[in-house]
Every structure is written in structure tokens, then in C-alpha cells.
Amino acid sequence: MRKRSWLGLVFIAVASGVSGAQGRPLTIEDYYRLKTVGAPQMSPDGKWVAYTVGTRIEATNGDSVEVWVATADASSAPKRVSAAGSNATVPQWMDDGRLSWAVNGRRWAASPAAATPALVEVPVGGRGSRMLPSSDGKWMAVLRETPVIKRVRTFASDFERRHDERFRGVQFDWLDFQRDGAAFPVPNRTDPELFPPTEVFVAAAGDSSWRQITRLGLRPSGTEWNRDASLIVFTADSAYRDERKYGGDDVYTATRDGKVTRLTPNDDFDYNAARFSPDGKWILYTRGMSTDAVIAKRMDNGGPTDIGVIPAGGGAERILTLDWDYLPTNVQWSQDGKHIYFSGGVGGATHLFRVSPNGGAVEPVTKGERRFGGLSFDKAMSRMAYTVGLRETPAEVYVANIDGSGERKLTNVHDGFTREIALSKSDRVQFTSKDGTPVEGFMTYPTGFRRDGGPYPLVVLNHGGPHAADGYTFDFKPQYLAANGYFVLQVNFRSSTGYGEKFLWGTWGAWGDKDGEDVMAGVDHVLARQPIDRRRVATMGHSYGGFMTNWLITQYPDRFAAAIPGAGIVNWLSDYGTADIARTKETEFYGTPWEERARNIMVRQSPLTYADRVRAPTLFIHGEVDQRVPYSEAEQMYVALKKNGVPTKMIQYQGMPHSISGSWNIVHRLLNERQWLDTYLKPANP
Asked: DSSP labels for 226-289?
């Protein structure tokens, strides 16, 4: 495991302080006024940037999304190209320079240069479909299912058939029978009748005679031609039909005459995003340890995720990020093939990096205390468009040269919002945990904060994952809590991304221990430096943040005056068989409940084991059909706290999976969470 410290790459912190912005405090009604800006797409010629602007509609509980375009040089004002109220999404540039977007399963296109864009419907199945033209336009490739002979159901008698037809319920005999947010039961992926093998077919352009060039019996994806259309690359999982394996993709190539070569024979890794270099000599990919390898080897970490290249004709891999201690994403070649560009998180920021395919040090392209999102490039890879996230300002669209120079802000969607509302200041905080490990967090100040105006209550807001991180992104919830008089602390505890592999896997085998100590070190750090009432501290969070909340109120029962766990696990033994991701227990808990070591860990790290310690009044938030963290998890802890006389309340959202969505639900949740906090953290007679 690489040991490089994240501290060496953290950018300079902003000065501590409080915003002096003028305006009224944020209110819950502002949730519907806040727009979302995203999906920036730079045109191939680099002259235009398309993006979406979304508005929440209270009356419908839905969103209205519009597609806009702006000139990359900001020479004219941005303009809307989709029809008003059409809920347009997925903007994409076409080869002829027009911009297309989706509306209810249909695609429309228009020229961005037209003063009044004329909308033309385009066939669904162009760019983004499974049909793949070669770069010279002479060949086409397609992924096509190859049907198998269907089984015919027979009955011994009409009596048996009638009772089969009368059955109302579900029946299944496969392992992967549930997935959060999907209809129950999930179709059997090992059944070739339901999921036939997908093979690669090729044909000359304009020829209807398709020739099958693969016969792997798998379901490949990510097909791409090389420059001279002599070779196709794709990835496929040879263990796709084995329901007891989690599987992992390998990289394959196929010639037009059907010679198939597997390039990556190391079964310990899972390969993704394979693509040819511009000259066709190399294949780029990202790889990480496969879940099956982690389980089989009883590893004490999840292994690195790296960028690699391999000769297109076969040969030794070249791993390019062995000394870069973070998680690369969105990997792609430069137009000249001299660099590989990718995104990555370092601390609470996300930025663009590059590395030479010949090896060498990873170079940061962009810097600063912010998060870059939705990166897209022109065809020449000379310019890029992206959104910039900040904690105190909603995201807007920017453009810059590929080296990060010449940055220009293109949109000002939120100017009216930020002029009217005094959003709260948010600072980065740094401290050391109990064992001396450096930890980073973010503190949002109460609106109108005065150092002599306290003491104020504190809410500890724990992120999910656990392999995720809080950072430079605008979030309505901490701003809303701050507007109602709360300090809000968000800690990137052990297991968070952006701080190196040792930190990332620092909770292996003991979820809650070191990460819980990190959170408490953060609480003590801000208590010592800010006018906060230590008797009025609450903890809350969703998913892993819900587990963390349950853990903290059992391990530090005298430190919290209230708690709000959302979709939080309390019993790892029951969760193993009822949730849709057993792999987290089989890897980070070292096995299954019927293996003694793993069982002991599951019992020890279950908040339910210590339910008798809880003193904090607790509000449980859960989705009715959550299959990632089943509702029964909250129910168990709710019953335990009720039995022990702790003030407790449950809010279950009808029809909701793990992610509780819909503006009505989100606003209802925010209101009830704030009321719970006000009840137990604010004095009756201030």
C-alpha cells in the first residue's frame, strides 16, 4: 500500500472568518428558488458550451430542466435552446455542429448559432447508441444480443396450471434477487434467456451483412475502434454468469476477421474505460482490485485504483499512477497522445491532473479550494468546460484552456439568489485525531454569527459512503441549519476519499472506531475555539452517516443532546442477509456471519449491541423500501430506545428506497429535522 501523505498536496486554506455578506437569512421556501446548473458540454470546435439549468417545481414535486448554450468566449449572453417547460436533459453535440437533447425519450436538435433555434427531431440511437462507426466512416460495429432457445413451461395437468396462474406473489431461486431502487425481485442475470450473450458484429458502411466477430458468451461493453479500423477494444467479465462471484472486467481486442485476444490476464483486477491511444498503439484503462480477490486473499485493504496502459498488440502493462495516492476518474487521452488527463479528489477539492503514458510524475492542471465537476473538452483537447463548486456559492459553468489558464466564468444563474440571501460562511478546519492522524473538516457558521453572541448549538453532519468526502460543494442542508442559528461541522473521517490509501482503508475491520475518534476530535477542536455550548451538540447523517450517528450516541452517550440517523445500519448480522450489498461485510469485515472472526466483528461494531447506553433523543429517518439499508435496521434501534425510555420518533417515507428523493419529501425532512434539533438544542426561554 502506498504511504504518501495527503498533506503534501493540500492547497492553501482560506482565511478563517465569517462572511460579511448583506441580505436576509436563508429560509426553507428558498429550496424551491435555488436552481441547479450542470452537464456542461463543450462543442467539438470549442466555440460553444451547452449546459442544463434545473428548477424545482413545488406544485408537481418534480423538476423543470432547460438546455442552454453560451459562447465559450462570453461574447454574447447565454440563451435557452430547449422549449420552455419541456424538461430537457442530456445535451450532446452532433458531428454536424448541432446540439441535441432528450425530452421524454425523444431527441431534438438545433443550431446554437441561430438567433431563434429551429428545433428538429433526430432519430434516437445516434450518438450514445450501441452502434459504433469507425473514425474514417468506412466500418460499423454493433453490440447485439444473441438469443438462446427459450424454455417452454409444461404442467402435469390443467389443475396444476390453473393454480399456477392464480398465484399472486414472487418466487426466485437466484442469489442477486434485490437491488435498491429496482423492482423486486431483480431479474436473474445468470439466466441466458433473460440476459442473452452479447456479441460484437461488424459491417462495411452501407452494407447490411453483419459479421459476428466474437463468440465469448459474455456481455461486453465499451467498444471502440482504433484509428485504422483494424481492431476493436472492449471490456467483458468472464465471471458474469457465476452468481457467487462479484466478477471483474478484462480488456479484449478483436480484429475485423474475428481474432479475439484477452490482453489483461491478471484475475486480481477489474479493468474499466478501455480506449485506444490516438495512434492506436496503446490501450488506456483504469484498474482496481477485484472484490473477489480482496475476499479470497483476506486483504486488510481494498487495494489501489490506478491508470495503466498496455500495448494494443499485447504485452506488459505499464501502471502510471503507482506514486499517486488518490483515486483517478474520467480518464482520457490528449489529442496528440502525449498526456493522459483525469480527475481526482485531494482533500475536499476535486481537480484535473495529467500524466505521461511513458511514465513520470502526475502533474496537477488545476488548483485551488474548489471542486471541478462535469469536465468536458473540445475535440482538439485544447479547451475545457466545467462547473466550479464552492461551499458558499452554488455551482456555475466555467471555461479554460487545457492547462488551466485563461479561465472565464460563463454563467451567472445564481446572482439574484446570492444578492438577496446572506449565505453563511464556511471554513476548512484541520486537527489531529486521537492517534495523531491529521484530519480535515469544514465548519459552517450560524448566519449573523458574532463571537460575543453565543454560546451557539452545534450539529455534526456526517457524510455517507464511507468512501466519500465532504468538500467544496454548495449544500442546502448545512446552510439551512446555519440560517437557523447552528454551527455545522462536517468531518472527513477515516475512510474518506482524497487523503491517500492508508487513510481510505483506515477503518478496515472496525467501522466506527477510528472514524468515530476522528469525529470526536473534530468536535473537541471546534469546542475549544468557537463559542459553542458543549451541552447542545447533536449528530446526524444519512447512510454511513446514519451508521456513524448511531455509533456515536452509543460510544459517546454523554456528548450528544440529540441525534437524527438517516438510513443507518445498527445490526451488521441482520444487514448481511437483508441488504443488497453483502460484499461490504465480506471484504471490510473479513467474511460472513457464519465465520467466527467476521461474526465477532459484526457484533462488536453493531450500534444495537450498545443500545442501552443511548441517552440522546433520537429521530429515525428511513425509506419504506430501502434495500441498501433495510428499514428493519432503524426499526430495531427504535424499539431498543423505546424499551429503554429514550425519547424516540420514526419517520418512514412511503415508497422511498435508500436515497429519499422528491422535493416534498426533502422539504418535509428538513422541517422535521430542524424541529427535532430545536426541541432539544435550543432553550425554551433564551
From this structure: -TTSSEEEEEEETTTT-TT----EEEEEEETT--EEE----TTEEEEEEEE-TTSSEEEEEEEE
In sign, the C-alpha dihedral spanning 487, 488, 492, 493 is positive
More confident: 132 or 36: 36
CB 544 within 8 A of CB 465: yes
How many Cα atoms occupy the beta-carbon half-sphere of 479 within 13 Å?
A: 24
3-state secondary structure of 183: coil
Longest CA span, the chain: 85
pLDDT band of residue 267 (cuts 50, 70, 90) is: confident
Residue type present at position 241: R
pLDDT of residue 124: 58
Distances in Å between the Cα of 567 and the Cα atoms of 89, 607, 632 are 30, 13, 10
Q: How many other CB atoms sit within 10 Å of the CB of residue 531?
A: 15
β-partners of residue 562 are 538
d(CA 460, CA 139): 57
Helical H segments across 288-351, by residue range: 291-296
**Rounded-to-integer distance, Cα 355 and Cα 363, Å:** 6
* Residues sharing a CB contact under 8 Å with residue 677, sequence separation 6 or more, in sequence order: 457, 459, 481, 486, 538, 562, 564
Q: β-pairing, 396-401 with 383-389? A: antiparallel
Q: Does residue 19 register a pLDDT over 70?
A: no
**pLDDT tens figures, 319-337:** 999 999 999 999 999 999 9
Length of the chain: 686
DSSP-assigned beta bridge partners for residue 540:
461, 564
**CA 288 to CA 268: how far, in whole Å?**
8
Q: What is the mean pLDDT of residues 499-527?
A: 97
pLDDT at 6: 40
